Each structure stands twice: as structure tokens, then as C-alpha cells.
Amino acid sequence: MWLCGPVSGIIVQPVVGYYSDRCTSRFGRRRPFIAAGAALISVSVFFIGFAADLGRHLGDPISKKATKPRAITVFIVGFWILDVANNMLQGPCRAFLGDLSGNNQRRTRTANVLFALFTAVGNILGYAASSSSHLHNLFPFTITHACDVYCANLKSCFFLAIALLLTLTTLALTTVREEPFTQPKRGNTGKQGSVPFFGEIFGALKELPKSMRMLLLVTFLNWIGLFPFMLYDTDWMGKEVYGGKIGEGRLYDLGVRAGSLGLMLNAAVLAVTSLAVEFLARGGGKRLWGWMNFFLALCLAMTVVITKMAESNRRFTAADGGGTTPLPPSVGVKASALVLFAVLGIPLSVSRSSSSIDMFRN
């Protein structure tokens, strides 16, 4: 299931970018795709939040221990739609910022910084909302026979997210003007048809300068290392740092909650650092980009060090039925893991911003 993000990104982003660049709608080039992406996100979030309820209506058993294949299917479908919609929304949003900035590089960098900032702010709000155990009180109808309190809290978060997304999208699309795009007229010698989509993509890759190819290669390698950590960071916290096991005791759950706190710290650091990216780049954009890649590699390597620290300092207590049960990690180990989560926001503020491309280009 987790492959849907990279797969949809590889396919959807280039396709959406290609057609949004050539869209001649009277509403503009970017706004139709932004509106469609926001609408699809709302639909996908509904499927994810109500997967258990829809699965029950489709015939899943009500028992908590029973396998619920229909709910799982609905959830996976919703997850795929969500990733496709995210790529449909974010690409045109960035392109729209570039269109509004014109050829002014300073405005473009500022727009990228603000984009990264508000992305981080959204992450912080999401983690803060999900940490509440009483959010379902705002929407009492979310608790059903197929959905307990935890599920209802998730639904409530989704309702708030949908309301905020649709409100802000409507506000932005109705207040920010976009001039309709007109296809340039071809000359008399332009009888040859337009280059096919994939032909144009591969042609652009061939024409890239060596520095840009190096940027793409390093970014590709970065995400190979970073993506597994992003998928399993809270799981790493619960299993490796806290020493818990899924479904056995509360230790794993405590670790996952601590990992969620770390992700919120990561988003906060990313938000603050994104404001300083343009200032830091004045000393040399390429140098900053390079050092941040080394720093990212160091942070990922520290996961091994922290895991070894947690194992060597693991404490145990006697279990009721005999044997031993691990205790939560020491304050030093937990603090080290949380600091790692937080400082990862520094290189991410550079690598996640398209302003790094401008740094490398210049």
C-alpha cells in the first residue's frame, strides 16, 4: 500500500504538470487542477475515515478480532485516491506560485519558503489535533458499532481537515486571479505535430545541464534513504527505542505516541528553518544544499546509534506470570530520539523546497 505514494508521484505529477501547463480553460491553467485535487482529497478522506462503517455495510463481521477484508479494500482505495489527489494538488499549487511570481527570482524563493512554512504548520496542526482523545465530542455521530472512540477521533480530524481545506481552497481560487492561457500560434513552418508527452519528458532530461542531473540523482538517493524512515519512524520508536511489541502491553503504544511527538517537533523545526533558508543561502546556495545532504545522512545514521543505546540501556521488570517485561527507555535515550526527529526538520526544509533547485541552478 505504501508504494502508492511513489508510484502515483512518478505518474501523476508529470502528467498533471504537462497538462496544466497547456490548459486553456477560462478559469486558468492551475485553478481547475487545484479545485479537482481538493475535491478528490475530500472524497478520499471520507473513504479512509468511514472504511470500517462501509466495510460493515458491505458485509464485514462486527467482531474486533475478525478480519475485515471489505474495510481494508475501502481503506486502500481511499489511500490511493488520496495520494493521487495530493500530487494533483501540490504540483499546480507550486506552479501557480511560480506564475504569480513571474520572472522575479526573489519572489519565487519567497513563495517557496512560504509554501514550505505553511506545509509545516499544517503538519503541526494535524499532529496536535490527532493527539486529542476527546475530539469526537464535536461530532458524536462518528461513534458507531463499527467505529470506536479512536476511530471516531480520526473521523473528527478528517471532518475538520475537509472543512479547512475546502474553505481555504475556495477562498484562494476566488480571490487570486489567474489569466487564461492561450496557446502560442505556430509559424508557417510548424506543420509538424506536437511532441508526445513522454517524448517531451525524456527530451527535457537529455537537455538538462550536468549540474541539474547531479541534483536529481542526489535527490533520488536522498529519498531512497529517507522514505523508509518516514514510513516506519513511529514504528522504530515503539519497537527499537521503547522495546515494545505490537499487541503486547502498552510499551509499543507509548513509543508510537512519543514518535508522534517527535514528528510534531520535526514539523515545528521545519517551519522555523524554512524561514531562514533564503538567508542561509546567501552564503552559497550550492554549499548549503551540499552540507544539508551530508547532515541528512548523518541523522539517518544516528538511528543505528540510538537503537544500540536503547538496547544497551534497556531495563526490565519482573512480569506477573514469570519472565521479564521491558521498561520505558531512560530519559537520555528518549531525549536523543526526540532530538533526532526535531533536527531532521533542518535538512528537510532545504530538500523539500524547490528553492534548492534555484540554488543549484544559480
TrEMBL record:
It comes from the Eukaryota. One of its GO terms (molecular function) is sucrose:proton symporter activity. Gene3D superfamilies: MFS general substrate transporter like domains. Keywords: Membrane, Sugar transport, Symport, Transmembrane, Transmembrane helix, Transport. Pfam families: MFS_2 (PF13347). It is found in: Membrane. Belongs to the major facilitator superfamily. Phosphate:H(+) symporter (TC 2.A.1.9) family. Belongs to the glycoside-pentoside-hexuronide (GPH) cation symporter transporter (TC 2.A.2.4) family. This is Putative sucrose transporter 1. One of its GO terms (biological process) is sucrose metabolic process.
